[in-house]
Amino acid sequence: MPAPVTSKGERSAAELKAAALRVIARQGYLSTKIADITAEAGKSAGVFYRYFTDKDDLLRSVVDDFAVALRERVTEQAGGPHALDGVEDVRGHVRAYWDTYCAHRAEMTGIYEASLVSAEFAAHWEGMRARHVDIWTAHVAEARDLAAPDRDTRLTALAVVAMIERFCQLAAPAESEEEGDAAVEAMTRLLAHGLLRPEQPN
């Protein structure tokens, strides 16, 4: 069992988590070994096991940190009330997810890859997706008021979320700000043409 964490221990644990995120960003979670993390952090295996029981235990801690950061970022990005009245609104929602994904790509990669082999992390991943789908379900309903009635707004929202998720996995990180802007614009145009009245995207 990990030892109680002191202020010095908190720094060591934080250094291990930061090192783990750097390694995961380079080579993925499933390919990351504890030895990779300790080497990156400049710590011994003994130090690692002082704070974490195994690699999954470290990821659980990262997931908790990520959940707090994600809530704060979404609140900041959202600003005012949500709406989906035109292309700019679609672009704003795509940009919020893209920026969040890029800022936390290692965490997203870790949770996603762990979800492929762990029921526990699959539940984390599905929970994040469900919250995203909830948001887009409301947006799709608003957009369909402008276009045509949709028999299943949640299914449409799931399609939107699945596209955005997979697109970010493949396109992020962009090599430049211009490439990032182009990625956001590509997804924005695709979604806008599917969700809004034909004459609205321009």
TrEMBL record:
PROSITE patterns: HTH_TETR_2. It holds the Pfam family TetR_N. Residues 33-52 bind DNA. It comes from the Bacteria. Keywords: DNA-binding, Transcription, Transcription regulation. InterPro entries: Homeodomain-like_sf, HTH-type_TetR-like_transc_reg, HTH_TetR, Tet_transcr_reg_TetR-rel_C_sf. Residues 10-70 form the HTH tetR-type domain. This is AcrR family transcriptional regulator. It comes from Streptomyces pseudovenezuelae.
